[in-house]
Each structure stands twice: as C-alpha cells, then as structure tokens.
Design goal:
alpha/beta; Nucleotidyltransferase, domain 5; 2 domains; six-stranded mixed β-sheet; five-stranded mixed β-sheet; 11 strands; 40% helix; globular; binds 5'-O-[(R)-(carboxyoxy)(hydroxy)phosphoryl]adenosine; binds zinc ion
Length: 361
C-alpha cells in the first residue's frame, strides 16, 4: 500500500486503538515519533455491572453492548481528527466481542483510506508496561520507547491467560511458560463464586484477603517445584471448594473464615507467580521484568515482586503496568499497533479477520 508506506516514513504517526475482546469497549488516540509517544485521549465503557448478575461474562450480551457503545466512543475520541492508521484487537478473546471491534476498525480504516494493524491482546498487555507515567504526573506526558531494555520477561496474568513470555526485541516473542488449566484471574473469579463474592472476583478477594491470615487455612501451592515455567490453578480452586464445603457442613462458615481463605488463596497464587517469574528471569538473564493483565492490579502480587526482583543476580528492572492499564483498555492496543506500524507491519482493511484463539509464538 503506497499511501501507508508514505505515512510510515513520516515522523509523527497518529493511531486510533480499539479494544473489544471481552466485556470492556475501549478506544484510544495516540501520537508518536521514532523515539517517543503521547497518549492523547482514551475512553472506555465497562459492562461489569451487567455481567455481575450472571456471575461471569455472557458472550451474546457482551457483543450486543459493544455494538451499542463502540461508535459513540469512537466519535468522542476522534472528534475531527483523522488517524494515520487504525489498530484493533483481533484476538484472543470472545469471537462475538472481537468481531464488533474488528469490523468497526475495518469500516473506519476503509472510509479514511488508512491501513489497519491487527493487534494480539496479550501483546497489548505487554505494552501496557510502557504506559507508566513518571512522577510528578504530567498531562499528555511524552513516554520514551527505549525506557525498557531487552531481553525482557513479561508475566501476563489475566482472566483468560497466565503466561511467561520472553521478549528479545519489539515484536520478537517466545512463550516459555503458561497455565496448563485455569488462568490466574479465572481462578480468582471461580474462588470468589465459591466464597459467595461478586464478579469480578479478583478485586473482591483482594479486599477480603487484606483482613485475613494467609496461614490460617493451609492450601496447596500448585507446581511450585515443577522444573518448568508452567502454572496450574485448577487444583487450588478445588481445594478451596472442599474447605468451604467442610465449613458449611459443620456450620462454621464465618466472615473470619472467608477472610482467611481469601488470604490463603491469594498467597498461594502470588507465591507461585513470583517464584516462577524470578526463576525465568534468572534463567534467561533478562534486563527487565514486565507485568500486565488484570491480576497485575493485585497489590500483594505487586509488593511481592517489588521485593523479590531486585534480589536476582541479573538485577533486572521491574515494570508493572499502571493500575488503570492492567485490565483491558485501548491505550495498550494503540501503542502495540503504533509499534507494529512503525516496523512496517499492517494490512488492508479488506483483509482483517478476528482469531479467538490467536497465540503469541
Ligand atoms: O486483563 P483483564 O481485564 O481481562 C482479560 O484479558 O482476561 O483481566 C480480568 C481479570 C479478572 O479475572 C479479574 O478477577 C482479575 O483480572 N483481577 C484481579 C484484580 N483485579 C482484576 N485479580 C486479582 N487481584 C486484583 N486486584
Ligand atoms: Zn486482557
């Protein structure tokens, strides 16, 4: 595409980012040059209150709400501005939700005569680490792209994924570990249901855990000593289920027990996440450790990593996505799209499909 190549060579690039892979509809506008970028506007509509009633995301409902919400959000973010390219989450995620974002992006790119960038949602979560603002907070702050040094190790922990990814450079990924069953966030959500807490379970369990004693209810720490970088959370969830059942049968299911089991469960998850992240960082001798995804909002995880990572012999710098960019958002998609566009990876709006099970290599 000639027009796209011309823009690629221009110094400044404006990207419209669109995210709709699960239950958040999000749009962002970002501008960058060769060395830095600025996030100019973001907008988001969450559906969490609607899905709360069902105890989890209902794909059909999510897609319908995305359809109602996405155009007003795009209108609000773009105003009269025209982007140089449109970046959209094309997978992994719920196919009905993904299709709304992908087809909106295709239509916009077609109308504007601009290229389209397909962004992997996990890659987006990795790039959320570049969105941290240094203190003091400055509006429209310029972020330098070379702030994070390679090789980097990314721990991505969300509702659908728990992965350790080695990143040798922009666009160069190698998955070195993943969950063999449930994702960490999924385990938080399922355990929350077991202990009668609302969806999403992560924040609800973290709030309870703050009042509990993590040693009061001993729980397993699955795969802590396995000689790989994989995870498993399904057995831990079942262990919680049995403990809660026992307590209910013996009529000893109290508020204190709920706080304690939340603290113990969180402790098990955090311990194994931190141990494997440290082992992988050491093994690959990385210069940076990146943490993203909804579970990266967990304060216990952030604090434990902040203590453990500086102790490693390779002395990597720890980056954790800012709280508001841990869960799904479009800023990370616009940024990942901007990096790809600069590297010359984009497609025509006529050829872009959604892939619900798209995995990074
Ligand atoms: O990244 P995300 O918004 O969506 C996916 O791509 O899956 O992650 C959502 C997940 C949910 O499972 C939610 O329970 C979890 O992130 N989560 C947390 C916390 N905040 C959100 N888990 C633990 N502690 C938190 N504070
Ligand atoms: Zn996500």
């Amino acid at each position: 595409m000639n027009h796209a190549v011309k823009q690629f060579n221009r110094r400044s690039v404006a990207v419209l980012g669109i995210e709709s892979s699960c239950d958040e509809t999000a749009v962002a506008f970002l501008k960058g040059d060769e060395v830095s970028f600025r996030l100019l506007s973001t907008a988001m509509a969450t559906q969490q209150n609607i899905h709360k009633e069902y105890g989890g995301v209902v794909p059909e409902v999510a897609a319908r709400i995305h359809i109602e919400t996405i155009i007003p959000l795009v209108k609000r973010i773009l105003g009269r501005r025209v982007p140089d390219c449109v970046a959209v989450t094309a997978g992994p995620g719920l196919i009905t939700s993904l299709l709304v974002g992908v087809h909106t992006a295709r239509a916009l790119a077609y109308i504007y005569g601009k290229p389209l960038v397909r962004v992997n949602h996990i890659e987006g979560h990795i790039y959320s680490n570049w969105l941290a603002t240094q203190k003091p907070l400055i509006k429209n702050q310029r972020h330098r792209l070379d702030r994070i040094r390679f090789p980097a190790l990314a721990l991505i922990v969300s509702g659908g994924h728990t992965e350790l990814i080695l990143m040798r450079d922009h666009g160069k990924y190698k998955k070195i570990g993943k969950t063999v069953d449930d994702a960490a966030g999924e385990a938080f959500d399922k355990v929350a249901k077991i202990v009668d807490l609302d969806y999403p379970g992560g924040p609800a369990i973290a709030r309870r855990a703050a009042y509990g004693n993590s040693l009061a209810v001993p729980l397993p720490i699955p795969m802590l000593h396995s000689r790989d970088f994989n995870f498993s959370f399904s057995g831990l969830k079942t262990a919680v289920l049995y403990r809660v059942r026992d307590q209910k049968n013996h009529k000893t299911y109290s508020e204190m027990f709920r706080d304690d089991i939340c603290a113990s469960f969180q402790h098990s998850v955090v311990t194994v996440l931190v141990k494997k992240t440290c082992a992988a960082a050491k093994h690959y001798n990385v210069k940076s450790v990146l943490v993203g995804g909804g579970v990266a909002a967990n304060i216990a995880l952030r604090q434990t990593l902040a203590k453990a990572i500086p102790q490693l012999p390779c002395q990597p710098l720890l980056f954790v996505a800012p709280l508001k960019y841990c869960t799904d958002n479009a800023a990370m998609i616009a940024l990942a799209g901007y990096i790809q566009f600069r590297r010359g990876t984009f497609t025509s709006p006529l050829f872009c499909d959604a892939d619900p099970s798209w995995e990074l290599p």
